[in-house]
Design brief:
With 449 residues, the chain is of the alpha/beta class. The chain folds into 3 domains: 53 residues, 3-methyladenine DNA Glycosylase II, Chain A, domain 3; 251 residues, Dihydropteroate synthase-like (TIM Barrel, Alpha-Beta Barrel); 122 residues, Rossmann fold. 40% of the residues lie in helices and 16% in strands. The protein has 16 helices and 17 strands. It has an 8-stranded parallel β-sheet with strand order 10-9-8-7-6-3-12-11. The chain is globular. It starts with a helix and ends with a helix.
Length: 449
Amino acid sequence: MGLSGIEIFKKLPKTNCGKCGVPTCLAFAMKLATGQAEIEACPDISEEVKEEIGEASAPPVRTVIIGAGERAVKIGGEAFMFRHEKRFENPPVFTLFLSDKMDEETVSDRLTRFNNAVYERVGVVMRPELIAIKGDSGESSRFEALAAKVCRETDAGFVLMNEDTEALSRTVRACSGRKPLIYAATGNNLETLGNLALEFSCPLAVKGNNLEELAGFAERLVGMGLKDLVLDSGARTAGKVLEDQIIIRRSALMKRFKPFGFPTIVFPCEMTDDPMKEAMIACQMMTKYGSIIVLSGIEGHSIFPLLLASMNIFTDPQRPMTVEEKIYEIGAVDENSPVIITGNFSLTYFIVSGEIDSSRVPVYLLIKDTEGLSVLTAWAAGKFGADTIGVFIKKSGIEDRIKHRKLVIPGYLSSISGELEEELPGWKVLVGPREASHLPAYLKQLSQQ
């Protein structure tokens, strides 16, 4: 059991300096206890206390970082079996598989598809994040050349896979600044790869032929001082992998079995030759409980649904997705463009802005902070009423951008139009349609008046 917020607070400097981004040490301690902050955010704490608190307040499944810079990814950090208990923390990382037996054209084509697989959904950018590079040819020069090509042509993180420890060591040294995941420590090379990972501070995958062997290997590596491990149970059938994943997660969370307190890697690409079945297995692994999911290829028709499902599952259900409160200019706006207001729930924004864009009528879209609530819910909660909208309009600066004084409000808020005109002297409040799909026709009619 981790430390409580009060127990953590007793070990903090109690300066209330705010350097961690939280106003008080007590508030910071409470965030640490609930996993909403990291101890590294406090600059004034000693390394000894930092290690003590970090260890005690860490989630049962350790957070592991792969890669460097903006493309570094976090995996693990989980504390629950089921999303409805609270939330899941770090979504699975979809990973492209490359072999050094592939010809140059195939590799280039797969890398291009990987780099182009970037999607935006309700303001969230989704993409595959890692590339697994495997030495199948037995020629170290081909493996090293493939790794070098990946380094040149993408800034993504990667997994280095080779049974030839000498070739693997040379490649890790050449790419150490990118912090790759080294794959994989087994009974034959445990100490060699363990020392390699320690030398370059890289995460290390550990593979066993079964769960008992995997636990033993992980325990030995932890004893060597390694903290950032990724587990591979060795199973390569969908049913067995599913069983192993559940046992590993349950052991870490419910039994606090430390050798299994690490994220996992799974290989749907090695379980079937059917691309559709591979996508189905990947979906299964996403929910139960693969952290790195290695795919044979990145195709839009399969990777986009997987990314979208992952986003839905790993979005915090207690925290609505929002967009920034400000004035959004849609199209080539001028001083005569209509002004529309709505809340900052991200789905509302993207639906409304999409319909405005399709109308081809330039519009100032005012987004007011409603704490991610929908229009009616925000109104009922007192966050989107005439008084709050009136204050926002006056402070927004929209009056300096337009000649007219007309404001379009959502149709569901028609009852506040009169009250809002009282809050905004000189303004005329227009009631827009209830459904966003009716906005194009409404705006075209409005622009002709």
